Amino acid sequence: MANHRCGSVSEEEPCCDISKKTKICLCVFFGLLVAVIIAVPVGILMWRHPLQEWKGKGTTAHFYEILLGRCYTYTQIVRPELGHKDCQKIGKAFTTAFLSKDPCSSTEQDYQPLLELTAQTVPCNKTLFWSKSSQLAHDYTRVQGDLFTLEDTLLGYMADGLKWCGDPRSSEMNYQSCPDWREDCSNNSFSVFWNAVSKRFAEDACGVVHVVLNGSISNTFDERSTFGRVEVFNLRPEKVHQLQAWVMHDVGGVHSDSCSSSSVNNLKRILKERSIAFSCQNNYGPIRLLQCVKNPEPSSCRFYV
Ligand SMILES: *[C@@H]1O[C@H](CO)[C@@H](O)[C@H](O)[C@H]1NC(C)=O
Ligand SMILES: *[C@@H]1O[C@H](CO)[C@@H](O)[C@H](O)[C@H]1NC(C)=O
Ligand SMILES: *[C@@H]1O[C@H](CO)[C@@H](O)[C@H](O)[C@H]1NC(C)=O
Questions:
Q1: What spacing in Å lies between the alpha carbon of 165 and ligand 3's midpoint?
Q2: Which protein residue's CA is at the shortest distance from atom 8 of ligand 1?
Q3: How far is the CA of 187 from the centre of ligand 3 (A)?
Q4: What pLDDT is attached to residue 295?
Q5: What is the pLDDT of residues 246-256, one digit of tens each?
């Protein structure tokens, strides 16, 4: 009997050989088990969610948190006079508009519930459009706090500078890549959003409306820009009495275009056809002053400094 017991002197070697083999077997077994436990769900995930690859940048990291944070910042701090808005509901409506959907067949209807939740009245005479002059126009509304660019309204403020898209085979956002407007598709969730909110912003405008244009580029009025393609055509002639353009030249830069240039005349013609009066001013003083504050050296600022 003792001969068969493990640990007995005579049987020590074969006995421990067996236990070594057992250990190795167990090691291999558990190793495989762990590999299977890890590999199977990963495999299933990859098989279930092969997120499509696009040419454009993916969804901004922390997209949802940024949206919510900006919504609260805007409604509590930036424009508390807007009154109560349900930021949780707005955030949900935003993501519902594009999650689990093909990011190349986005529609304005997808964003309709979001637009309804973020309705906002901009007072007459206080709408400011911009084209190729984003920085300057926003510098101006920062100091002229009663004027609104689209990015000074709740929805524009929330989405400004962010990127987002979903995927029809997943309920997640695609953080890897999103469709590029030029290279992938024009009706992507991002562009369709900006077209829809720009359209609403222009439809809501009333009184005398303004636009900051860039006189240091050749196509000061560009018919392919959001302003030239969407906003100009969605102004309501029955409410908008006049569009006043401010053509701003870079301080010390080239003056390639001005109020009398052909591209600005094109804008004038379009507005005339739409029965909206047009006026234009080169280097509008208050905005020129801002440019000079940032860049006081050149002689064109000598009147201000
Ligand atoms: C808008 O501006 C026009 C022209 O300057 C003025 O006649 C009108 O009263 C203004 N409307 C409001 C609501 O301030
Ligand atoms: C005009 O466009 C150029 C090129 O994009 C830019 O560098 C410049 O700041 C713009 N100027 C104004 C007045 O917005
Ligand atoms: C994009 O959507 C618009 C409006 O829904 C539609 O008229 C147009 O044909 C679409 N374009 C493409 C390339 O699908």
A1: 18
A2: 207
A3: 6
A4: 85
A5: 999 998 877 77
Does the beta carbon of 178 lie inside 6 Å of ligand 2?
no
Q: Do domains 51-118+153-204 and 121-147+206-305 have the same CATH topology?
A: no
pLDDT for residue 24? 64
DSSP codes joined into one string, 232-301: HHH--TTTEEEEEEEEEPPTTS-----TTSHHHHHHHHHHHHTT-EEEEEES-HHHHHHHHHH---SGGG
What's residue 253's pLDDT?
Answer: 78
Residues 10-35 have pLDDT tens digits of 444 554 455 666 666 666 666 677 66
Q: Cα–Cα distances in Å, from 60 out to 66, 159, 187, 197, 198?
A: 9, 11, 19, 20, 21
Name the residue ranges covered by the structural domains of the chain: 51-118+153-204, 121-147+206-305
| Ligand 2 contact via 139 beta carbon (within 6 Å) | no
- 132 CB within 6 A, ligand 2: yes
Low-confidence ranges of the chain (pLDDT < 70): 1-31, 34-49, 304-305
* 57 strand-pairing partners: 177
Q: Name, in order, each residue with C-beta under 8 angstroms of 115's C-beta and a sequence gap of 6 or more.
A: 155, 196, 197, 200
Lining residues, ligand 3, CB within 6 Å = 107, 186-187
User: Residue 256: nearest ligand to its CA?
Assistant: 2
Domain 51-118+153-204 fold is ADP Ribosyl Cyclase; Chain A, domain 1 (1.20.82)
Ligand 3 mutation target, pool 187, 188, 193, most atoms within 8 A of CB: 187
List the catalytic residues. 124, 206
- Of all atoms in ligand 1, which is nearest to the CA of residue 124? 13
Q: What is the pTM of this model?
A: 0.84
Superfamily designation of domain 121-147+206-305: NAD(P)-binding Rossmann-like Domain (3.40.50.720)
